[in-house]
């Protein structure tokens, strides 16, 4: 089957699956979603294409500033890197005690699309008769940001006001590591001035009346390995060529990768407890206008790997040693560097305490219990902006208040159901209510955020 016919087959399967899923699982309300203002505002935001690798954030910022004005939130735009704005909306709390604030975080950027593989244009926010809204960002994570705003609209409409300051953040570049967004913000005086007590960020689509909550995540190491050697004619052998040395390393990496994968396949460990290593690029050769020179052995070759390291004590040191001694040893004329490496100074990755010793966890549990739901704490396999907050000693929990929607983050035909969106707003409203009303004492930052886990 060629690639185009394969794409058509995938589209058919997704359409049928979504149709069956919706009929069986999504409850219907009396509202006409086409006339629902919250749904239409969500669709308007989805129609703004903030696509990596060159997103234009200007239209999104303009739209969100308009929303802040409508809702009645103060707003300011920060820019630590040119053309990468960060928007802070603020609802001042009533307390005079300068209580630690609540931060509701969402990122504006989305991943690229292959438009020909979509049922509907990915930035049209088309809504079908079942209320399914097809758009890039409908799950990751424009839905979360708009649920924050719509929940705040409901809270204001019923006369509620927070005791502690409430900030809604709209940040750039999460999809490419976040270093120029949250990364710069976390180290700024502007962040320190917010006096953050808790950051709520994106999580996962959940099922069966249980909300998955990310209390930590694997460290994201984007590793580039380089091998060096003498150049020479392609018709001869010589020891320690650059390609030979790199392929020895790739063999070692693949053997380690297979050992980790086998632990998951055998049911010995879940995915979040093993190191994940995946090859992402291989760069070598002497380019020509129509290909590569075929009779020259290159003097430099390199390969890139996406490595995800569990936040377990000593795991960072273990992986650093393996990379330096086995995957890129100097003895084989090799070197390495990281384009992104998330860790604390001691090599570990901090996590948020996810039990009743942390009041933010207890309040979150209480909020979802109102909807007959429970919490399931997990270590995220992917990365989010939450890590920047945790590395500053601030509690951060990742939750997407959406249940029973097919998981299509970063996939073709990413979709959100309008009815589930409206249900999620009510959950977020309850969370903000409890967080914003909480005036009790908090444990120290050290008691809320642990440097690492002794085990998972």
UniProtKB/TrEMBL annotation:
The keyword Nucleus does not apply. The active site is at residues 109, 174. GO terms for biological process: amino acid metabolic process. Binds 2 Zn(2+) ions per subunit. One of its GO terms (cellular component) is cytoplasm. Zn(2+) 1 binds at residues 107, 140, 202. Keywords: Cytoplasm, Metal-binding, Signal, Zinc. One of its GO terms (molecular function) is metal ion binding. Coiled coil: none annotated. It comes from Marchantia polymorpha subsp. ruderalis. This is N-acyl-L-amino-acid amidohydrolase. InterPro entries: Aminoacylase-1_M20A, N-acyl_aa_amidohydrolase, Peptidase_M20. Residues 1-27 form the signal peptide. Zn(2+) 2 binds at residues 140, 175, 410. Transmembrane segments: none annotated. NCBIfam families: Ac-peptdase-euk (TIGR01880). Pfam families: Peptidase_M20. It comes from the Eukaryota. Its cofactor is Zn(2+).
């Amino acid at each position: 089957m060629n690639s185009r016919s394969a794409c058509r087959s995938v589209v058919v399967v997704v359409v049928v699956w979504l149709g069956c899923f919706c009929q069986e699982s999504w409850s219907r309300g009396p509202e006409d979603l086409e006339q629902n203002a919250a749904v239409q505002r969500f669709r308007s935001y989805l129609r703004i294409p903030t696509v990596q690798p060159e997103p234009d954030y200007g239209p999104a910022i303009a739209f969100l500033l308009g929303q802040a004005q409508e809702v009645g939130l103060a707003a300011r735009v920060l820019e630590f890197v040119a053309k990468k704005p960060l928007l802070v909306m603020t609802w001042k709390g009533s307390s005079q005690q300068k209580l630690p604030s609540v931060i509701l975080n969402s990122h504006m950027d989305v991943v690229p699309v292959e438009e020909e593989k979509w049922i509907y244009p990915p930035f049209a926010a088309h809504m079908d008769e079942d209320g399914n809204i097809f758009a890039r960002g409908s799950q990751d994570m424009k839905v979360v940001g708009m649920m924050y705003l719509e929940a705040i609209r409901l809270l204001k409409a019923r006369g509620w006001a927070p005791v502690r300051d409430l900030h809604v953040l709209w940040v750039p570049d999460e999809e490419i590591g976040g270093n120029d967004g949250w990364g710069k913000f976390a180290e700024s005086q502007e962040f320190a001035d917010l006096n953050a007590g808790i950051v709520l960020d994106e999580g996962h689509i959940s099922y069966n009346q249980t909300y998955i909550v990310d209390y930590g995540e694997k460290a994201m190491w984007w590793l580039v390995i380089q091998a060096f050697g003498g150049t020479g004619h392609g018709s001869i052998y010589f020891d320690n060529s650059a390609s030979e040395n790199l392929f020895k390393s790739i063999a070692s990496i693949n053997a380690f990768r297979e050992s980790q994968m086998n632990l998951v396949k055998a049911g010995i460990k879940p995915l979040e407890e093993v190191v994940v290593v995946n090859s992402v690029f291989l760069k070598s050769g002497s380019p020509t206008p129509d290909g590569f020179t075929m009779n020259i052995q290159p003097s430099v070759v390199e390969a890139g790997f996406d490595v995800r390291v569990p936040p377990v004590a000593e795991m960072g040191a273990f992986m650093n040693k393996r990379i330096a001694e086995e995957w890129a040893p100097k003895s084989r004329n090799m070197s390495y560097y990281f384009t992104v490496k998330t860790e604390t100074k001691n090599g570990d990755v901090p996590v948020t305490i996810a039990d009743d010793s942390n009041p933010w966890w207890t309040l979150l549990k209480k909020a979802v219990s109102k909807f007959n739901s429970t919490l399931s704490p997990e270590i995220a396999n992917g990365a989010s902006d939450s890590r920047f907050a945790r590395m500053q000693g601030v509690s951060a929990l990742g939750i997407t208040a959406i249940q029973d929607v097919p998981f299509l983050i970063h996939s073709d035909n990413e979709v959100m159901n309008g009815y589930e969106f409206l249900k999620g707003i009510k959950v977020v409203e309850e969370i903000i209510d409890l967080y914003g009303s909480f005036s009790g004492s908090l444990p120290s930052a050290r008691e809320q955020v642990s440097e690492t886990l002794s085990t998972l």
